[in-house]
Amino acid sequence: MRGLSELVSTVILLSVVLTISVSGFLYAMYYIDQNQAAVEYGFIKSVFRNIAVTNIDQAIRLDYRYPSSYVAVGYKVTSINVTFVIGNTIITFLNTTCLTASVRRPLAQGLNMVYGVNKSLVESDTPYMFVYEYYKSGATTLVLDPSPITFKVLYVNSTQGSYTILYFTLVNFTGLNNPAKPPEIYGQGYMVVKHDPSKDLYFKYTNITTIDVYINGLRQSLPQDILNALSSSTNGVEVDIRVLRVGVMAS
User: Fold this and answer.
1) pLDDT tens digits for 74-102?
2) Cα(126)–Cα(147) distance, rounded to whole angstroms?
3) How do residues 1-11 score in pLDDT, each as one tens digit?
4) Alpha carbon of 164 to those of 149, 150, 227, 233, 237: distances in Å?
5) Over the chain, what HEC string results?
6) Where are the transmembrane segments (predicted)?
7) Cα–Cα nearest to 145, from 181, 114, 191
8) Is the dihedral of CA 19, 21, 22, 26 positive or negative?
9) What b-and-e string marks burial along 102-115, b requiring 16 or more CB atoms within 10 Å of the CB?
10) What's the whole-number mean pLDDT along residues 127-145?
């Protein structure tokens, strides 16, 4: 009986040790997995922030290599429609394409602003884009959103007289080789972001006395700088709209 008791005790002890060992191993693997996912997510977060702070309106090319065992870079098209009513002219820009990076791990809680300002109209010294993150359906998603419209008021004095120019700039992500198509996603680990000003869209209107901006049908309150420019100009203002088409490819 004593021998049997010792055997039972040994089996129980081994079972406990084995359970603890397996639990420790699983926890260690989980910790390593979460840590690696967090490292990759932090890396791509830095990439998106770097793009957001870059003076993207100039000719520029940005090349990034990023770890991609957990991170998947992609894009999404949002139904953000912008309409300008410039005098008697109406011009509409349909949809905005954002860059995304997803990790199927719980690395964020709720919806968080990472960088930038989520406003419809911002001054030209504000970054063109903002970055936010959210957790949903088992995945953490990072979004680089170029939807803010930047504006600038320029008062010009020349030998031909003085006049005012209102500049509006919109940004959209497109294919690297074809600005009429969405970003090109062929793989993961390497990304190119390129802006060629010759592929931008330009619109110019003169002698304008009224202007309204609508986003998804909602009339926006114009900043005081724009209202002052319109009210102080007796012959109207010049309105210049530029759409930056920023090419993206991931491979």
Assistant:
1) 999 998 999 999 999 999 999 999 999 99
2) 13
3) 555 566 555 65
4) 19, 17, 12, 7, 5
5) CHHHHHHHHHHHHHHHHHHHHHHHHHHHHHHHHHHHHHHHHHHHHHHHHHHHHCCCCCCEEEEEECCCCCCEEEEEEECCCEEEEECCEEEEECCEEEEEEEECCCCCCCEEEEECCCCCEEECCCCCCEEEEEEECCEEEEEEECCCEEEEEEEEEECCEEEEEEEEEEEEEEECCCCCCCCEECCCCEEEEEECHHHCEEEEEEEECCEEEEECCEECCCCHHHHHHHHHCCCCEEEEEEEEEEEEEEC
6) 7-30
7) 114
8) positive
9) bbebebbeeeeebb
10) 94
Rounded-to-integer distance, Cα 66 and Cα 40, Å: 8
**Percent of the chain at pLDDT exceeding 70:** 86
- Position 231, amino acid: S
Residues 26-70: tens digit of each pLDDT: 444 444 577 899 999 999 999 999 999 999 999 999 999 999 999
| Assigned token pair, 114 | 């990472």
Instruction: Name which of 174, 153, 139 is nearest 238 in CA terms.
Output: 153
Length of the chain counted residue by residue: 251
Structure-token pair, residue 41: 């997510």
Mean of pLDDT over the chain: 88
